[in-house]
């Protein structure tokens, strides 16, 4: 059976060049990067070269990159670390209602520990308003954390303006860029970003590796304690093969960014329009512009998202409803509800996410399969009324 993978926002295939770069670090150059002997020095050099590759992709200095175990850990270190370090200045944090659980749950934890958090609303396209952000700032605000691009509906936020606003008020600005890095050009200097989270497995690198960018001079407390790895911010022996692979993935993403964006945008638009034109009562979730080049999110009236995912899976198509991390819970997506969708339309959502490996032929296959599957599911639904 044909298999088409359109769940690249959940995770991506590792690039063969990334695998090649990683292999020697498992059984040849396997030293601990903290050791003084030649094996250790070899590993340490590999880490520094990966640090440069990651820094180059986002316009940072290598010394501002801290390796972590992924996007979730980067978000936790940034949010808890800044909140705890600046407690004497204030205990207010601003975020948005559509963040990933890695941010929302961390903010909730802070609320349970004496901090107050403002969750900014979004409009129908998932955009946070700058006016709302400005209004939410108080003398107590120490951190603004707003994602660069949303993992479910692909909305890209105006982080440059948000960063400028934060800087003007002396507030740390963190952005979760897990979904955007490698798909949206981003320069931390230009965009006034103080802290940024990246995850390797979303850009064709291995899982369990990520980075936190932190501008020099940012006031932060560590939240993990141990040996002094990553300048005390993320202790634990570095995952050298993983970090080497992550670095290579960033280098490839940097070199191919323009071509990848062009290719994915064309396929995304064909997929999006194709479904919307052939399936009645289907609506696009998220914006038409300022949208991730690999994200399609469509709700189908009177269709249960989970039933749709199962039917697509039987046709060999991997997709998701809501976000993969929360698709095991039978609650409607908090992102779609925050963007104003009814519960019914939120339940009927389908996310298809592309990668640089997605082909025209795969898009044609999906366009052929989706309409009859939706029609069949509707024919069994008591909610469906044909006009
Ligand atoms: N932030 C966003 C926006 C994500 O989409 C994800 C994963 O889906 C994460 C954070 C978590 O990243 P990781 O899986 O590397 O912990």
Explain this structure.
It is a single chain. With 387 residues, this protein is an alpha/beta fold. It has helices at 16-22, 24-27, 38-58, 71-85, 101-111, 130-136, 159-168, 240-278, 305-314, 334-338, 343-347, 360-379, and strands at residues 4-5, 65-68, 92-96, 116-120, 141-145, 172-176, 195-199, 210-214, 282-284, 295-300, 317-318, 349-353. The strands form 3 sheets. It has a 7-stranded mixed beta sheet with strand order 2-8-7-6-5-3-4, sandwiched between helices. Strands 9-10-12 form a 3-stranded antiparallel beta sheet. Strands 1-11 form a two-stranded parallel ribbon. β5 (141-145), α7 (159-168) and β6 (172-176) form a beta-alpha-beta unit. α1 (16-22) runs antiparallel to α8 (240-278), α3 runs parallel beside α8 and α8 (240-278) packs across α12. The longest helix has 39 residues, at 240-278. Bound molecules: pyridoxal-5'-phosphate (PLP). Pyridoxal-5'-phosphate (PLP) binds next to α4.
Strand content: 5-15%
Q: What spatial form do the alpha-carbon principal axes imply?
A: globular
Number of strands: 12
Helix content: 25-40%
Task: Round the Cα radius of gyration to an integer and report it.
Answer: 21 Å
Q: Total number of helical segments?
A: 12
Q: Give the mean pLDDT.
A: 96
Ends apart, CA distance between termini: 35 Å
Low-confidence stretches: 323-327
- Can you write the helix and strand succession as a string? EHHHEHEHEHEHEEEHEEHEHHEH
The biggest sheet amounts to: 7 strands, mixed
Structural class, please? Answer: alpha/beta
> Order of strands in the sheet with the most strands?
2-8-7-6-5-3-4
Bound molecules: pyridoxal-5'-phosphate
């Amino acid at each position: 059976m044909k298999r088409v993978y359109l769940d690249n926002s959940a995770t991506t295939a590792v690039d063969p060049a990334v695998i090649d770069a990683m292999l020697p670090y498992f059984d040849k150059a396997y030293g601990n990067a903290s050791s003084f002997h030649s094996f250790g020095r070899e590993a340490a050099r590999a880490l520094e070269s990966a640090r440069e590759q990651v820094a180059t992709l986002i316009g940072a200095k290598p010394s501002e990159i801290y390796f972590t175990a992924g996007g979730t850990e980067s978000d936790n270190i940034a949010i808890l670390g800044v909140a705890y370090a600046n407690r004497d200045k204030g205990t207010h944090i601003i975020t948005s209602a559509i963040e990933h659980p890695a941010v929302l749950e961390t903010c909730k934890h802070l609320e349970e520990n004496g901090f107050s958090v403002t969750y900014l609303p979004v409009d129908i396209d998932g955009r946070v308003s700058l006016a709302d952000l400005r209004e939410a700032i108080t003398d107590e605000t120490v951190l603004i954390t707003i994602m660069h691009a949303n993992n479910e509906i692909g909305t890209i936020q105006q982080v440059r303006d948000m960063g400028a606003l934060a800087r003007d008020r002396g507030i740390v600005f963190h952005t979760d860029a897990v979904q955007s890095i490698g798909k949206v050009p981003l320069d931390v200097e230009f965009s006034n970003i103080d802290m940024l989270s990246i995850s390797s497995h979303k850009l064709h690198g291995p899982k369990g590796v990520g980075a936190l960018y932190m501008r020099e001079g940012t006031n932060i407390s560590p939240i993990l304690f141990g040996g002094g790895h990553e300048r005390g911010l993320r202790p634990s022996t570095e995952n050298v093969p993983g970090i080497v692979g992550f670095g290579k993935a960033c280098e490839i993403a940097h070199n191919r960014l323009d071509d990848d964006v062009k290719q994915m945008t064309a396929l995304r638009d064909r997929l999006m329009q194709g479904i919307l034109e052939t399936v009645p009562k289907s609506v696009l979730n998220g914006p038409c512009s300022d949208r991730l080049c690999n994200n399609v999110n469509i709700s189908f009236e009177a269709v249960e998202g989970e039933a749709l995912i199962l039917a697509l899976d039987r046709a060999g198509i991997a997709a998701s409803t809501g976000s993969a991390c929360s698709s095991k819970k039978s609650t409607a997506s908090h992102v779609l509800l925050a963007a104003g969708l009814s519960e019914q339309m939120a339940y009927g959502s389908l996310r298809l996410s592309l990668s640089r490996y997605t082909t025209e032929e795969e898009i044609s296959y999906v366009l052929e399969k989706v309409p009859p599957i939706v029609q069949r599911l509707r024919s069994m639904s008591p909610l469906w009324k044909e006009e």
